[in-house]
Design a protein that fits this description.
Keywords: Cell membrane, Membrane, NAD, Quinone, Translocase, Transmembrane, Transmembrane helix, Transport
Number of helices: 21
Catalytic activity: a quinone + NADH + 5 H(+)(in) = a quinol + NAD(+) + 4 H(+)(out)
Enzyme class: translocase
Strand content: under 5%
Subunit structure: NDH-1 is composed of 14 different subunits. Subunits NuoA, H, J, K, L, M, N constitute the membrane sector of the complex.
Family: Belongs to the complex I subunit 2 family.
Strand order of the largest sheet: 1-2
Amino acid sequence: MTADLSTTATSLLTQAPHTTAPGTGDATGSLVAADVPSVVQSIDWLAIAPPTLTALAALAVLVADLFLPAHRKRLLGYATLTALAAALAFLIPLRSGDRSTFCVTTGAQACSYTADHFTVVIQALVLAGAFLTVLLSLDDTRKLPAGEYWFLLLASASGAALLPASRDLATLVVALEVASLPAFALVGIKRGDRRSSEAALKFFLSSVVATAVMLLGVSFVYAATGTLHLTEIADRLDDVSPVLDTLAKTGVALTLVGFAFKTAAAPFHFWVPDTYVGAPLPIAAYLSVVGKAVGFSGLILVTVIAFPSYADVWGPALAVLAALTMTVGNVAALRQNATRARSAVRLLAWSSVAQAGYLLVPIAAAAYSSDEQIGSTVAYALMYAVVNLGAFAVAALVARTHPGNRLSDYRGLYATRPLAALALGFFLLCLAGLPPGIIGLFAKVTVFSAAVDAGLGWLAVVMAVNVVIALYYYLQWTAILFRTPDGAPETAGPDTGSPASAPTRRFRAPTPLTTAIVLTSAAGILLSGVPQAVLRFAAVSLF
C-alpha cells in the first residue's frame, strides 16, 4: 500500500540514531523508543478477507488444474462457487462498516483500505455477480480450458472486490487493472473463434488507451498535491497553488476519462456491443454487471472523496455524459433487427449502455447537492445487477436450442418454457420500470428525484424522455415471448378433423442454469415486495 512520501521521509528522519552519553544509553534509548511511532502498518485480516480469499482461491484452482484429469475438471467450477460463497460470508462480520487497515502511522490519519458501508455493499454485489456467473458457466466450459477460465474469473473478481475498498490512487489503479486484465482473456477464451478474438482485441486496445489516459491524470494529480491518498488529495486540492490549478484540473478530467470507459459511458462505449457478442454469454453477463460496478465504484471514489473541490469540473461533465449515454444506448437499442444473429445479446448490450446513463445521474447530482445522492446510484446498481443477470441467464437457456440468439428466437417462448418466459418478461419490465417490476420503477424514481433535488431539471427531463423510449423495445421483446411460435400449426378443433399440432420438443435445462434463473427471479420478486431493502441506501451516507 502507498503512503504519503513526505510523511514517510519524516518518519525515516525520526528514526535516525541518537547519540547518548555513556551510562545513559538504556534510559535514553527507552525514552526515544517510546517517542518514536512505529512505521509498521498493522493489517486487519478480517477487513481484507473477501478479496484475499478470492485471490488465494484463484491460485489454488490454477494449481489444482494441473493435477485433475479431464473428466474431473468440473470440480474446479464447484470449488470456485465454494470460494465465492465463503468470500460473501466474510462480509457478514464487516456489515458495521467501521474497519480500516494499511493506515499511515504518522502525521495525518489516512488509510489505503477501508471497509465502510459503501465497500461492503459493492463487494456483495461483485461477489454475488461472480457467483451467478459461475452458475451460468458450469455447463458451458466443456469446450473451454476449464482451469484457466475459473482462474481468470476468480482473479478478476478479486480485483473487483478490492477496488471499492481502495482509498489511494495507486491501490485504485492496481485493483482496476487486476479486475480488467483477466476480463480481456475471458472475452477471447474461445479458441479458434474469430468473433471472440476480435472482441477481445477491441476490448484490450480501447481499455489500454483509457488506462494510459487515466494514469496520466493520476500523475498530474500527484504532481499537484504530492500525495496519493484520496482524503489527503481532497484536503490539498482545497488550497492548491494557483500555478498548479490548471495542472490539477487537467488531472481530474483525465482521471475521469479512464473510469468513463469502464462504465461504458458515451462516447467511450463503442467497445460494448462487439465485446458482449463475441464473449461467452456468461462473461458478457459478468461484464454488464461486475465490470460496470468496478467502473462506477472507482468513479464515485475519485469524484466524491478525492475531488470534491473540483465539483464544478466533474459535475457538469458527468451530467452531460449521463444525458448522452442514456440517449445513445436507447436509440441504438431501438434499431436492433429481430432477425439478425445475436440481436438479443446486442439489445442487452445497448440496454446496459443506457442503464449506465441512469447510474451516472446521481453521481452528477452529488456535485450540486450532497454525497448522499450516491446512495441512489448504489440502490439502482443493486436492482440492475439482479434483473440484468437474470435476463442473461434466460438468454443462455435459449441459446442452448437457438445458438443464433436472435430476438425472433424468443417468439412463443411461453409455449415451450412458460416459467422462463415469465421470468424474462419480469426482468424486462423491471428494466423498463413498469409493474410488476416495482423495484425497477422505484429505483428509477429515486434516480429521477436525485436529479430534481440537485436542481438538474434538464437532466431529469432527458431521463424521462429516455425512459419512454426504452419502453418500446422492452415491451416489444416482452410481447414476442407470448406470441404464437413461427410455423406452429394451429391446434385442431373438435369438428375440423385435422390433426392437432405435435408437442414442441423440449430440452432439459441444466441445473446450475435453472438455479441462476430461480435465484435472480426470487431476488427480483423479493425486492419488488420489499423495495426499501435497497432503496434505503438512497437516504443514508455510505462513507
